[in-house]
Amino acid sequence: MRMYDVIEKKRDGKELTKEEIHFFIDGYTNQTIPEYQASALLMAIYYQGMTDEELAHLTMEMVQSGEQIDLSAIEGVKVDKHSTGGVGDTTTLIIAPIVASLGVPVAKMSGRGLGHTGGTLDKLEAIPNFSFELSQQTFIELVNKDKLSVIGQTGNIVPADKMLYGLRDVTATVNSIPLIASSIMSKKIASGSDAIVLDVKAGSGAFMKDVHQAKDLARAMVQIGKSVGIDTRAIISSMEQPLGSAIGNALEIKEAIETLQGRGPEDLTELSIELSTQMVLLAHPEYSPEETREQVKEQITNGKALEALRTMIVHQGGNGDIVDDVSLLPQAKYTIDVPADTSGFVTHMEAHEIGTSAMLLGAGRATKDAVIDLAVGVVLHKKVGDRVEKGESIATIYANEKDVQASIDKIKQFTVIKEEKEQTPPLIIDMIQ
Ligand code: URA
Ligand code: CA
Question: For residue 336, what are the β-bridge partners?
Fold first, then answer.
């Protein structure tokens, strides 16, 4: 087989065989296929797309390029959740204890983040003494016992994705639905879960700026899951404004605790309930959706979800008292309010830019090696649709530096206040299964 012919075939819009896709992934990861040929194929895929069969083959070839985690020692249907990323998304820390408290095992492998705030692992670092460096055996024992454990991603999972992503990044081929779908799904499949709930974000603060693109991506990922026997469904949710109120690591842990106490922000609560419901339904297809949704809400009301979080923290060496006393979390030295310049209604909050206001304080990484300040961030007091009076605080900045003018300016600039109220877009846009 020659790479030239594979490129030419895709360039001309023809379907690649499993053998041709294997040849490409194998050769590229073993460095027998040069980057210029891999680049050309990526560009051909960018323009010609891929059929469902090609996509399933590509994903599985990527999975097989590295280690696959074996979770078969965990009893029950292991359901994983993946969000395509947004601003201030704290859902994992809320959903995982809810689902676990209903007896569905959550064996979560999380990563660090690049962007506005940290990833789930960075956020968990705000919990004093919490450890996510557990052995595989301890991890499995904890999930069997408590139904919940979170560890850092270990092992050499999907090395083909690391290489391809690096190449896509410099060849203008990141934004291709088949390439994104196979990248995300290969990592989820290699992580060993039996079923997957995807939260595909649409909007200015998301990877997919428009709803049609987000739906196409969701369909591609659900189809991959189906093709390889992993039950997958996707919720399309809006990322036009930050999710919840808190953007920052310790601040989001606090927000997750408050949500599990039943007093979290409305949007974050709604999305967490829906994602939890779908996770439980994937583990128990015999349950009724309505009753499951009610049961999920009940786990918040009766405090059992919060207890599941406390148990996980304690069993991973952390201070479980934080669920009763959030002042035990890292605290910022200064709090600065951001007053509204005019009265009216909030009509828009540019999620990406508001997220950047938190990153400028040190809540997130602008580069891979940047160090996160766990205590800092932004808490929004207003959301799209809310009434605001001139001088009223629209947000509070938590900082360890006195000079936060750049963040104040960003929040003011990107929180649009108008005289007339505008219609708020729905949070949950669609579900694809
Ligand atoms: N996230 C991923 O993991 N891969 C992509 O290609 C895009 C977003
Ligand atoms: Ca949040």
Answer: 397
